[in-house]
């Protein structure tokens, strides 16, 4: 009995009505199909970006199993991480004994050069003090006195995975970066990718920045962890930001954040506390956002934008114009992280696409204002409405009361797309049902070409699949 | 060529650990040899800081036992993460309209915020339950699967459930499966079984008489459609599968399960508790069986049929006769490609022992096996199935598994998603044996051809021949 055969079910029909939508939006407590994970997951990703760093969860081991499985499914790569396996006795007596023994065993067995520690909600609820526990581990000789450990509090009942990413990043800087050396800088621009599971995006940033002749460090750099070559050998630690580069981070000539909302706390720390030149751009998705990114690089470093990038830009614009008719006026619904959504909506608007429903399960008021202002900047944005803190079941109601042509998001929206009988352009994270999407960039001019190609062809495929026979033809 | 498992190999692999960890871990690994006592420690706390594959009680209760019951809403009660990570991740297939007849493919959370931690979450839970019933009027029951904070802040979900059960007039089941309870998924199974016993089982009577051939299929979670394939055999034998626990299962099937003649249990680890309870309380006997691979299926059909009269026994033989030539064709096709290949397994539940026969049907040999969260009774059932000079490991850490595989060098590894890409990188063929690697079913006569094909795909894929660049010398693969 397939869904298609059962569309006549009265409850199903009721679920598609305006009345149901009102009930659904009146929901205050229950969350259904959210586009949001929890803090320590983001902290794990961040820690994986430091070379030789072993992510270490202070808390229950089940969380570690879930994070590792979830990221492995998306990128199809091994994800190493340990926990100190807190159980009922730790709930009563605190987790210090687990933490100390865990550090001792992890240090001896996996020989990390640094440990990035963060907490599960269990450790947060019982109020464990990681800082003093780590100090005690050192004084008891479980790990050497000078062994580098960064830690961050990442309670899963606050924020989401992007908050955890931010907290871990700030924790890395606070715990392990050397004090800023007066006005001297190391001449390197530090690029922070944010919570971005597209390894190809990180590679693209590196390529674009190198072509402008800028010295850079990516912090954190989990490119290789998310996409490592097959060599016949398993390496637990992939190349990433080196310990030396992390230690020297506060002497950067500047910090450029490629996402704003997954790095908000770290930005404040770098800019306001450390007084380092800091910029944050909208994720460079589409031509306009990529232009703004390159202009920011130019302004921060005084370097010019080379002819080869201008030619690349020209090819992206050419691709956009060649395919504009397939996207212009098409209506879209999107869901995902705030930074991703801002980039994607900017891209759709420049193509003449019409973003209609924008669902963000983990946005804040600043995001809401920024998205609304972006929408109001374009005649194609007038129909767009932002649903902050809502979930994919809210979006389901919207797709029936105000239908769109295409859904943009990750694998978790596939049932939604099927029910609404529209295609799902898989952009975002986490993909559990398609291969290798993270291996192609969605940022930069090349990313713009990739997105135009994907979206236009999917819409054409959809037309081919559904059009009457007499409209089925060779030319599109 | 790989080494044969030996005591000295195990000692060398463990030597990297600090003394205390080494001593603890040494008790969990046994090389089976002639005269070995086959004593293995299991169901003990993980060693902190060593990379375990184990999950938590929530994973065992919500993820394994409750999640597949399709006409219930399963609330992940607490912060957002646990529900998110376990959403759709176990491949428990269901039939029925999603959101009306089946809620298993969806994710429901009470999404704790800081104020719920400080002031308690009971009021919020009431609201969550009300909203669930209002938005999904066809729901037949709701489980409340607790996450870590719920047990730590002292919420009384049992009282909320009692109150809301009266108000909403459907079963509301509190499941105290906080992730810090116990030492693995295993306690979660037990807690889930107890919740079934206390809140559902026996609470409803089907009007019809219990027939002589009425049975329940217990401990099959319909991963990749396993239930449908197992049920087909049982029904062709003339048995009435009244209830399935819990794959593609229903609330009614949980409530009226005391009205059968026999419980057939596939995953012993996760569901033996409730079978024992039904035996004690309702006098229903239970029987373990194995539907992986034609040899074990044949044995199991005969064992099951022996519990019934000649009609069933005759039909059982007919089923065997009907499928044997089909299975022989599968073996004829794949055995020449798989003969002599060595397999190492590290999985959960029943598979580390139950799939051995299926590999042997294909001429393959299991040289190492182990469980994430087994108990002594699982190992008692496993040792006889393993030959001498094989290795058995309990709650193997990633370090141990890497080292054993590297030295034994099997032709295939069957384990989970967390292990998959480690071994793929090393160049070993691998199949996920929790999720059937997004394939399946593997149970029953429908499953075996798929199982055989999948193992062949893994072992004989030409992609691995690409690994060495032609300009590299032989040694520098």
Shape of chain B: globular
Low-confidence stretches of chain A: none
How would you state the average pLDDT of chain B, rounded? 97
Tell me the fraction of residues in β-strands of chain B, as a range. Answer: 5-15%
Largest interface: which pair? A-B, 87 and 88 residues
Rg of chain B, nearest Å? 23 Å
CATH topology name of the largest domain in chain A, in short, is Rossmann fold
CATH architecture of the largest domain in chain A: 3-Layer(aba) Sandwich
The largest sheet of chain A is:
5 strands, parallel
Report how far apart the termini of chain A are: 36 Å
Spatial strand sequence of the major β-sheet of chain A:
12-11-10-13-14
CATH class label of the largest domain in chain A: Alpha Beta
| CATH fold field value of the largest domain in chain B | Rossmann fold
Tally the structural domains of chain B: 3
Number of domains of chain A: 3
Characterise the protein shown here.
The complex is a heterodimer of chains A (476) and B (477). Chain A is α/β, with parallel strands linked by helices and 476 residues long. Chain A folds into three domains: 4-30 and 320-469, Rossmann fold (3-Layer(aba) Sandwich), CATH 3.40.50; 39-176, Nitrogenase molybdenum iron protein domain (Rossmann fold); 189-307, Nitrogenase molybdenum iron protein domain (Rossmann fold). Chain A has helices at residues 10-14, 18-25, 39-48, 61-75, 88-93, 96-110, 121-125, 130-139, 161-176, 199-211, 223-226, 243-247, 264-273, 287-301, 307-327, 338-351, 365-376, 392-401, 414-420, 444-466, and strands spanning 31-32, 53-58, 82-83, 114-119, 149-152, 189-192, 216-218, 254-257, 278-280, 331-335, 354-360, 385-388, 406-409, 424-426. In chain A, the strands form three sheets. A five-stranded parallel beta sheet of chain A has the order 12-11-10-13-14, with helices on both faces. Chain A has a four-stranded parallel beta sheet with strand order 3-2-4-5, sandwiched between helices. A four-stranded parallel beta sheet of chain A has the order 7-6-8-9, sandwiched between helices. In chain A, strand 2, helix 4 (61-75) and strand 3 (82-83) form a beta-alpha-beta unit. In chain A, helix 15 (307-327) runs parallel beside helix 20 and helix 16 (338-351) packs parallel to helix 17 (365-376). In chain A, 57% of the residues are buried. With 477 residues, chain B is an alpha/beta fold. Chain B folds into three domains: 7-39 and 339-438, Rossmann fold, CATH 3.40.50; 57-199, Rossmann fold (3-Layer(aba) Sandwich), CATH 3.40.50; 214-318, Nitrogenase molybdenum iron protein domain (Rossmann fold). Chain B contains 20 helices and 14 strands. In chain B, strands 1-12-11-10-13-14 form a six-stranded mixed beta sheet, sandwiched between helices. Chain B has a four-stranded parallel beta sheet with strand order 3-2-4-5, with helices on both faces. Chain B has a four-stranded parallel beta sheet with strand order 7-6-8-9, sandwiched between helices. In chain B, helix 1 (7-14) packs across helix 18, helix 3 crosses helix 9 and helix 14 (310-338) runs parallel beside helix 20. The radius of gyration of chain B is 23 Å and the shape is globular. The two termini of chain B are 16 Å apart. The interface between A and B is large, with 87 and 88 residues. Strand 1 (31-32) of chain A pairs antiparallel with strand 3 (108-109) of chain B.
């Amino acid at each position: 009995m397939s869904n298609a055969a059962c569309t006549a079910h009265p409850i199903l029909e009721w679920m598609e009505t305006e009345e149901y939508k009102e009930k659904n939006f009146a929901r205050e407590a229950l969350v259904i199909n959210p586009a949001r994970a929890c803090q320590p997951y983001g902290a794990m990703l961040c820690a994986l970006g430091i070379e030789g760093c072993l992510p270490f969860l202070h808390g229950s081991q089940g969380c570690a199993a879930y994070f590792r499985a979830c990221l492995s499914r998306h990128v199809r790569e091994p994800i190493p991480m340990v926990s100190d396996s807190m159980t009922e006795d730790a709930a009563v007596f605190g987790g210090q004994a687990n933490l100390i023994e865990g550090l001792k065993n992890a240090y001896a067995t996996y020989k990390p050069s640094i440990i990035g520690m963060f907490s599960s909600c269990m450790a947060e609820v019982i109020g464990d003090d990681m800082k003093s526990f780590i100090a005690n581990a050192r004084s008891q000789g479980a790990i050497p006195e000078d062994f580098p450990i960064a830690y961050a509090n990442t309670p899963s009942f606050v924020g989401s995975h992007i908050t955890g990413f931010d907290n871990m990043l700030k924790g890395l800087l606070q715990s392990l970066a050397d004090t800023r050396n007066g006005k001297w800088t190391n001449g390197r621009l530090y690029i922070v990718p944010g919570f971005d599971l597209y390894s190809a995006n990180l590679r693209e940033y590196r390529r674009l920045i190198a072509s402008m002749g800028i010295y850079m460090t990516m912090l954190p750099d989990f490119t290789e962890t998310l996409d490592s070559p097959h060599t016949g050998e398993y390496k637990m630690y992939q190349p990433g930001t080196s310990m030396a580069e992390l230690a020297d981070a506060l002497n950067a000539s500047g910090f450029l954040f490629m996402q704003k909302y997954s790095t908000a706390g770290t930005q404040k720390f770098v800019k306001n506390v450390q007084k380092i030149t800091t910029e944050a751009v909208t994720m460079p998705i589409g031509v306009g956002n990529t232009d703004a990114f390159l202009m920011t690089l130019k302004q921060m470093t005084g370097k010019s934008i080379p002819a080869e990038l201008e030619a690349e830009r020209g090819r992206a614009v050419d691709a956009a114009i060649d395919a504009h008719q397939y996207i212009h006026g098409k209506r879209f619904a999107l869901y995902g992280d705030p930074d991703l959504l801002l980039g994607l909506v900017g891209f759709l608007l420049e193509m003449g696409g019409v973003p209609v429903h924008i669902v963000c399960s983990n946005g804040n008021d600043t995001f809401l204002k920024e998205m609304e202002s972006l929408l109001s900047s374009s005649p194609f944005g007038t129909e767009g409405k932002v649903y902050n803190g809502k979930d994919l079941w809210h979006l389901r109601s919207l797709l029936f009361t105000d239908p769109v042509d295409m859904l943009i998001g990750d694998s978790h929206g596939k049932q939604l797309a099927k029910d609404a009988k529209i295609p799902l352009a898989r952009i975002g994270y986490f993909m559990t049902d398609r291969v290798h999407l993270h291996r192609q960039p969605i940022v930069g001019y090349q990313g713009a070409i990739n997105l135009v190609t994907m979206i236009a062809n999917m819409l054409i495929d959809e037309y081919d699949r559904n059009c009457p026979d007499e409209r089925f033809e060779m030319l599109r | 060529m790989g080494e044969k498992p030996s005591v000295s190999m195990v000692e060398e692999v463990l030597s990297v650990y600090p003394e205390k960890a080494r001593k603890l871990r040494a008790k969990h690994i046994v090389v089976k040899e002639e005269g070995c006592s086959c004593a293995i420690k299991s169901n003990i706390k993980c060693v902190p800081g060593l990379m375990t594959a184990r999950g938590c009680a929530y994973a065992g209760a919500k993820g394994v036992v409750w999640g597949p019951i399709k006409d219930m809403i399963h609330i992940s009660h607490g912060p957002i993460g646990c529900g998110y990570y376990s959403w759709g991740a176990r491949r428990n297939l269901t039939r029925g309209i999603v959101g009306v007849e089946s809620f298993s493919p969806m994710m429901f959370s009470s999404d704790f915020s800081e104020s719920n931690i400080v002031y308690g979450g009971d009021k919020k839970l009431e609201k969550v339950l009300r909203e669930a019933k209002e938005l999904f009027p066809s729901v037949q029951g709701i489980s409340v699967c607790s996450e870590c904070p719920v047990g730590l802040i002292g919420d009384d979900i049992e009282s909320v459930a009692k109150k809301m059960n009266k108000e909403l007039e459907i079963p509301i089941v509190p499941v105290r499966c906080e992730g810090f309870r116990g030492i693995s998924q295993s306690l979660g199974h037990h807690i889930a079984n107890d919740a079934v016993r206390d809140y559902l089982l026996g609470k409803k009577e089907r009007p019809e008489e219990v027939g002589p051939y009425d049975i329940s299929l217990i401990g099959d979670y319909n991963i990749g459609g396993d239930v449908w394939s197992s049920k087909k055999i049982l029904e062709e034998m003339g048995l009435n599968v009244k209830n399935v626990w819990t794959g593609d299962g229903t609330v009614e099937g949980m409530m009226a399960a005391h009205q059968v003649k026999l419980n057939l249990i596939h995953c012993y680890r996760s569901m033996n508790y409730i079978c024992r309870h039904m035996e004690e309380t309702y006098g229903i006997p239970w029987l373990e069986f194995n539907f992986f691979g034609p040899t074990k299926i044949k044995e199991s059909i005969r064992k099951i049929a022996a519990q019934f009269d000649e009609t069933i026994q005759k039909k059982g033989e007919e089923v065997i006769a009907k499928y044997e030539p089909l299975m022989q064709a599968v073996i004829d096709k794949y055995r020449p490609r798989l003969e002599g290949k060595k397999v190492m397994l590290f999985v959960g539940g029943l598979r580390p022992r139950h799939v051995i026969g299926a590999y042997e049907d294909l001429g393959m040999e299991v040289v190492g096996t182990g469980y994430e969260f087994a108990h002594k009774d699982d190992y008692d059932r496993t040792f006889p199935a393993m030959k001498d000079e094989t290795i058995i490991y309990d709650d193997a850490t990633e370090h141990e598994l890497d080292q054993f595989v590297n030295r034994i060098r099997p032709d295939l590894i069957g384990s989970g998603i967390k292990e998959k890409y480690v071994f793929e990188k090393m160049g070993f063929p691998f199949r996920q044996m929790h999720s059937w690697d997004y394939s399946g079913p593997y149970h029953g006569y429908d499953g075996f051809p798929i199982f055989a094909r999948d193992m062949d795909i893994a072992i004989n894929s030409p992609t691995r021949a690409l690994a060495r660049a032609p300009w590299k010398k032989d040694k520098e693969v």
